[in-house]
Automatic annotation (TrEMBL), chain A:
Residues in the signal sequence: 1-18
Compartments where found: Cell membrane
Organism: Sediminibacillus halophilus
Protein name stated in the entry: Dipeptide transport system substrate-binding protein
GO biological process, one term: peptide transport
Gene Ontology terms: cellular component: ATP-binding cassette (ABC) transporter complex; outer membrane-bounded periplasmic space
Short name of any one Pfam family annotated for the protein: SBP_bac_5
InterPro entries according to UniProt: Peptide/Ni-bd, SBP_5, SBP_5_CS, SBP_5_dom
Sequence similarity: Belongs to the bacterial solute-binding protein 5 family.
TrEMBL record, chain B:
Compartment annotation: Cell membrane
Highest taxon of source: Bacteria
Protein's UniProt keywords contain Aminoacyl-tRNA synthetase: no
Chief localization: membrane
Origin species: Sediminibacillus halophilus
Transmembrane segments: 9-30, 100-121, 133-152, 172-191, 226-248, 278-298
Any one GO biological process: transmembrane transport
Membrane topology classification: Multi-pass membrane protein
Protein name as annotated: Dipeptide transport system permease protein
Record keywords: Cell membrane, Membrane, Transmembrane, Transmembrane helix, Transport
Pfam families membership: BPD_transp_1, BPD_transp_1_N
GO cellular component: plasma membrane
C-alpha cells in the first residue's frame, strides 16, 4: 500500500514539475485574465522591436524540400531559393529574363554558343567572387547521373547534357567552359531561343565551389549557407520557420527594400488565413469556402500561372480510339460554366493547351493568336458523336469512367462534366477517384480511360507545354502518337529563326486539337491576399516569386 | 521480476520484427512510387533516382537493407526531404510532439480525474450532470473543429492568443486545450463510473464508519482502486498523444512528428514510413509494458510473475 502511494506521489511530482509551462493552461478558466494581459503586453513589444525594420511575414506552407539548387525542384523551395540566390539571368517585373549575375552576354550567329560575362561585383555572401568555375561546377552537378536530380532534364539543352545524364557520355564532353574567372561559355545542342529564360530557373543557380567542396552539405543549415541573391539565410528552424535578411554583398543591394523576410510553415490554408487576419502573416492564400466572398476584396492579388488543368483521353481504350468521339466529348465540356460556378477563383477558361502570357517575336500572345481550338458546342458534339459511333459500328457507347485524384475541387469539376455529358449527349459516365500516388501510377501505366490532369510550366516557352505530347514522352499519358506532331516539335526545337519556330509551335498546337487527345478545362491562377501596406511582390507565371522589389510600409 | 522483463523484452523484439515485415510488405504493395509527380520525368532521370535510393535492387535485398537500418537505427535520408535523414526528422519532431503531448496528457489526467471525482461524489446532482455534459461534449466534438473554433475566437476575434506556430509557451495554450479535451472527457467518465462502484464497497463503508474524513476516504482509499481502468487506457493514450497528432499539428502548424505518419505514406517515402512505424510501435509496446508494471504497483494482488506462468 505504501509503495503504491509513494508511486502516486512521485507521479504527481513529475507532473507538477513537468507542467511548469502547463500551469498557464492547466487552470484554463482561472488564469485566462492573466494570460490576456501577458498576451497583449508581448504583442505590443513585438511591434516596437520591428519599428525600424521592414520585416515581411510570409508562409512557405511546408519545409523547403532542399536549398541545394538542383534538388529543390518545386515551389516549396523556389519561393525562397529564388530570393536567396541568383542565376545568370533573373526574370524581371515583366517576367522576361534580365541581366543578373551576368551583366551581358554574346550569342554566336548560329545560336549555339552563349558567352556570359559575369559581373565583377557579383559576390557570395561570404565575400567570395562568383566565378565562371562556380557555374561549371553547379551545372555539371545538375547533370551528374550519380546525383539523380529530377531537374536534370532542364540541362539537356546543353551540349552532351542528355548523354552524360543517361550515363553514356562524360562530364568532360559537356559544352561548359570557364574561359576566365568571369567569363562562362555554354555550347548548346540546338539553338534554343528561350535559353536565357530557362537559366533563370533555380536549377541553374551557381554553387560556390570552394564552399561545396569543403562542406558538401553546405545548403542544409543557415550558418553554412552561402547566398548570392538579394537575401541571405539567417536562421532556419527545420519544419518550423526560417528567416532571411538583406544580403549586403548583393551587387544590386540598393534596389532591395526589405530588411528581413520571415517564413512560417503553415500547411493549412484556414489557419494561414486566420493568421493573416490576426496580423501574423502579411500574405495568405484564400480558403476554398471563402473564395467567392474574398475574391472581390481589394486585398486580393491575382497573377496568372503558366499551367493548364485538363482531361486526358486514353486513345488505346474504347471508345476513345475514335477521334470524332473524342471531339464530341471535348465539345460537351463547358469551360465557362466550370470557372464561373465551380472553381471560382477568377481563372480563365482554357480553349487551347498553351496558357496566356507567351509573346511571339512580333509581340502577339500565343493563346490569342492561335485562338479557341475547342469550344463548347452541344449541337456539333451530338453530330460528331453520331458520326463517330457509326464509324465504329456502336449501337451503344461502351461504358466510360472518368478518374480523378481525390480532392473536393476535382470532384466538383468532374460532376459538372458528368452532368454536361448526360444533358447534352445523353451519355452516362461513371466517376472514380483514387489517392494521388496510385492515380499517377495508373495514369502513367495507361490504365485510365478518361482522367484528370494538370500541367505547370517549368520555364517560360510554349514548347515546354507542347513537347508533353510527343510520342512516348513521360508526360504524354494518352497513348496518342502522331508523326506530324512529333516532326513539328522536333523542328521547333532545332529552328534558329524565332518567327519560324513560333509558326511551327502554332501549327503543332493546331494538330494536337485536330486530334484531341486531351480536353482543356482552365488555366491556373495564383490568388493571394496581401496586406494593404505590402507592395512589389512579383509572382512569375512559371511559379517562383521575387521579393527583390517588394516593400512594406 | 527480472526474468519477466527479459521475457517481455524478447516478445517485444519479435513483435517489432513482425510489424516491420508487415509494414514493408504493405508499403510495397500499394501502387505508386516516391518519384511520381504530375510533371513528367525522363527515363534516365527516373533510373538515376531509383539507383540513388537502392530502389532498383531486388525486393529481398531491399528488405535486408531495411532490417540492417533498423538494427543500426539509421534509416538513411528521407526521399521527400533529401537533406534530412529520418533520424533528423524524428529527432526534431519527437521532442516537440512529446512536449505538447505530455502537457496535454497531464492536463487531461488532472482535469479528467477531478471532474470524475466531483461527478461521482455529487452523483445525480446538478454538478454531476454538468460535469458529464462537459464530458459528452468533449468526446463528441472532434478536436479539429474545436481547434479551428479556438483559433477563431482567441486569435482572430479577441486577439489575445497567437493563432498558430510553435515559438513560446503562449503558443501552447490553444493546442493543449484542443488536444486534452477528448482524453479528459474519456478519463472523467471512466473515473466517475469506477468511483461510483468503489464508493459502494464494504471497505469504504467501513472507513466511513470509522469516522475518517471524506477527503481521506476519497483520496486514500477510493481513488486508488478507482484509477485502475484509467491506468488501462493510459498506455495507448500516451503512445497516441506523445508521438504527435497529424490533424492538430497541421492546424496549429506545430513542427511535431505527427505529419510524418500520414505524409510519408502519401509520398511513398519508404525510409520515413519504416522509421515512423518502428518508432511508434516500439514506443507503444514500451508504454503497454509500463502500464503492466504500474498495475503491479497499484494493486499488489496482480503478480507479474504469475502472469508469466499462465
Amino acid at each position: 500500500m505504501k509503495k503504491g502511494l509513494a508511486f502516486l506521489f512521485i507521479l504527481l511530482a513529475v507532473f507538477v514539475l513537468a507542467a511548469c509551462t502547463a500551469n498557464e493552461s492547466a487552470g484554463e478558466e482561472d488564469q485566462d485574465t492573466g494570460d490576456q494581459t501577458e498576451a497583449t503586453d508581448e504583442g505590443t513589444s513585438d511591434e516596437a522591436d520591428n519599428g525600424g525594420n521592414k520585416v515581411l511575414r510570409l508562409n512557405n506552407g511546408v519545409e523547403p524540400t532542399s536549398f541545394d539548387p538542383p534538388e529543390g525542384f518545386d515551389a516549396a523551395s523556389w519561393q525562397s531559393l529564388n530570393n536567396l540566390m541568383e542565376g545568370l539571368t533573373r526574370l524581371g517585373q515583366d517576367h522576361q529574363p534580365e541581366a543578373a549575375t551576368a551583366e551581358s552576354w554574346d550569342i554566336s550567329d548560329d545560336g549555339l554558343e552563349y558567352t556570359f560575362h559575369i559581373r565583377d561585383n557579383a559576390k557570395w555572401s561570404n565575400g567570395d567572387d562568383v566565378t565562371a568555375d562556380d557555374f561549371v561546377y553547379a551545372w555539371t552537378r545538375l547533370l551528374d547521373p550519380e546525383e539523380g536530380f529530377s531537374s536534370a532534364f532542364l540541362g539537356y539543352f546543353i551540349k552532351g547534357g542528355e548523354a552524360f545524364n543517361s550515363g553514356e557520355g562524360s562530364a568532360d564532353d559537356l559544352g561548359l567552359e570557364a574561359v576566365d574567372e568571369k567569363t562562362f561559355k555554354v555550347t548548346l545542342e540546338a539553338p534554343t531561343g528561350f535559353f536565357l529564360n530557362v537559366i533563370s530557373n533555380p536549377a541553374f543557380f551557381p554553387v560556390n565551389k570552394a564552399v561545396a567542396e569543403e562542406n558538401p552539405e553546405w545548403y542544409a543549415e543557415a550558418d553554412t549557407f552561402v547566398a548570392n541573391g538579394p537575401f541571405k539565410l539567417s536562421e532556419w528552424n527545420h519544419d518550423s520557420d526560417f528567416t532571411m535578411v538583406k544580403n549586403d554583398q548583393y551587387w544590386d543591394k540598393d534596389t532591395v527594400k526589405l530588411d528581413e523576410v520571415h517564413w512560417a510553415m503553415v500547411n493549412e490554408v484556414n489557419t494561414e488565413y486566420q493568421m493573416f487576419q490576426s496580423g501574423d502573416l502579411d500574405t495568405s492564400e484564400i480558403p476554398a469556402d471563402l473564395a467567392e466572398d474574398l475574391l472581390d476584396s481589394d486585398q486580393v492579388v491575382i497573377d496568372p500561372q503558366a499551367g493548364t488543368q485538363f482531361y486526358r483521353f486514353n486513345v488505346n481504350k474504347e471508345p476513345f480510339q475514335n477521334v470524332k468521339i473524342r471531339k464530341a466529348l471535348a465539345m460537351a465540356v463547358n469551360q465557362d460554366e466550370i470557372v464561373e460556378y465551380v472553381t471560382k477563383k477568377g481563372e480563365k477558361p482554357a480553349r487551347g493547351f498553351v496558357s496566356y502570357g507567351f509573346e511571339d517575336p512580333s509581340g502577339n500572345d500565343f493563346r490569342e493568336t492561335n485562338g479557341d481550338l475547342v469550344e463548347y458546342d452541344p449541337e456539333q458534339a451530338k453530330e460528331l458523336l453520331k458520326e463517330g459511333m457509326e464509324e465504329e459500328g456502336y449501337d451503344e457507347l461502351p461504358p466510360i469512367t472518368l478518374t480523378y485524384n481525390t480532392s473536393d475541387d476535382n470532384k466538383k469539376i468532374a460532376e459538372t462534366v458528368q452532368q454536361r455529358f448526360q444533358q447534352d449527349l445523353g451519355i452516362e459516365i461513371t466517376l472514380e477517384n483514387a489517392e494521388w500516388n496510385v492515380f499517377l501510377q495508373d495514369q502513367k501505366d495507361l490504365k485510365h480511360q478518361l482522367s484528370r490532369s494538370s500541367f505547370l510550366a517549368d520555364y517560360g516557352d510554349p514548347i515546354n507545354f507542347l513537347e508533353s505530347f510527343v510520342t512516348d514522352s513521360s508526360m504524354n499519358r494518352t497513348g496518342w502518337s502522331n508523326q506530324e506532331y512529333d516532326d513539328l516539335i522536333a523542328q521547333a526545337k532545332e529552328e534558329a529563326d524565332e518567327e519560324k519556330r513560333w509558326e511551327l509551335m502554332y501549327n503543332a498546337e493546331k494538330v494536337l486539337f485536330e486530334e484531341m487527345p486531351i480536353v482543356p478545362v482552365n488555366f491556373y491562377n495564383q490568388v493571394f491576399l496581401h496586406k494593404d501596406n505590402v507592395s512589389g511582390i512579383v509572382r512569375h507565371p512559371v511559379g517562383y516569386m521575387e521579393l527583390k522589389w517588394a516593400d512594406k510600409n | 521480476m527480472l526474468r519477466y522483463i527479459a521475457k517481455r523484452f524478447l516478445i517485444m523484439l519479435v513483435t517489432i520484427l513482425i510489424i516491420v515485415t508487415l509494414t514493408f510488405i504493405l508499403m510495397h504493395a500499394i501502387p505508386g512510387s516516391p518519384f511520381n509527380q504530375e510533371r513528367g520525368t525522363s527515363e534516365a532521370v527516373q533510373a538515376n533516382l531509383e539507383a540513388h535510393y537502392h530502389l532498383d535492387e531486388p525486393m529481398y535485398i531491399q528488405y535486408l537493407l531495411y532490417l540492417k537500418s533498423i538494427v543500426t537505427f539509421d534509416f538513411g535520408p528521407s526521399i521527400k526531404q533529401p537533406t534530412s535523414t529520418v533520424n533528423d526528422l524524428l529527432g526534431r519532431g519527437f521532442p516537440i510532439s512529446l512536449e505538447l503531448g505530455l502537457v496535454s496528457v497531464i492536463v487531461a489526467i488532472i482535469s479528467g480525474i477531478l471532474l470524475g471525482i466531483i461527478a461521482a461524489l455529487r452523483h445525480n446532482k446538478i454538478i454531476d450532470y454538468a460535469a458529464m455534459a462537459i464530458a459528452v461534449l468533449g468526446i463528441s466534438i472532434p478536436n479539429f473543429i474545436l481547434a479551428t473554433q479556438l483559433i477563431q475566437s482567441f486569435a482572430v476575434t479577441w486577439q489575445i492568443l497567437p493563432a498558430a506556430t510553435w515559438s513560446s509557451p503562449k503558443h501552447m495554450i490553444l493546442p493543449v486545450i484542443a488536444l486534452a479535451t477528448g482524453p479528459m472527457a474519456i478519463i472523467a467518465r471512466l473515473t466517475r463510473s469506477s468511483m461510483l462502484e468503489v464508493l459502494t464497497q464494504d471497505y469504504i463503508k467501513m472507513a466511513r464508519a470509522k469516522g475518517l474524513s471524506p477527503y481521506k476516504i476519497v483520496f486514500k482509499h477510493a481513488l486508488k482502486n478507482a484509477l485502475m481502468p484509467v491506468v488501462t487506457i493510459l498506455g495507448t493514450l500516451l503512445a497516441g498523444i506523445l508521438t504527435g497528432t497529424f490533424v492538430l499539428e497541421k492546424i496549429f502548424a506545430i513542427p511535431g512528428m505527427g505529419k510524418y505518419f500520414v505524409e510519408s505514406i502519401n509520398n511513398r517515402d519508404y525510409p520515413v514510413i519504416m522509421g515512423t512505424t518502428v518508432f511508434y510501435s516500439a514506443f507503444l509496446i514500451v508504454m503497454l509494458f509500463l502500464v503492466d508494471i504500474a498495475y503491479g504497483i497499484l494493486d499488489p494482488r496482480i503478480k507479474l510473475h504469475k502472469k508469466e506462468a499462465e
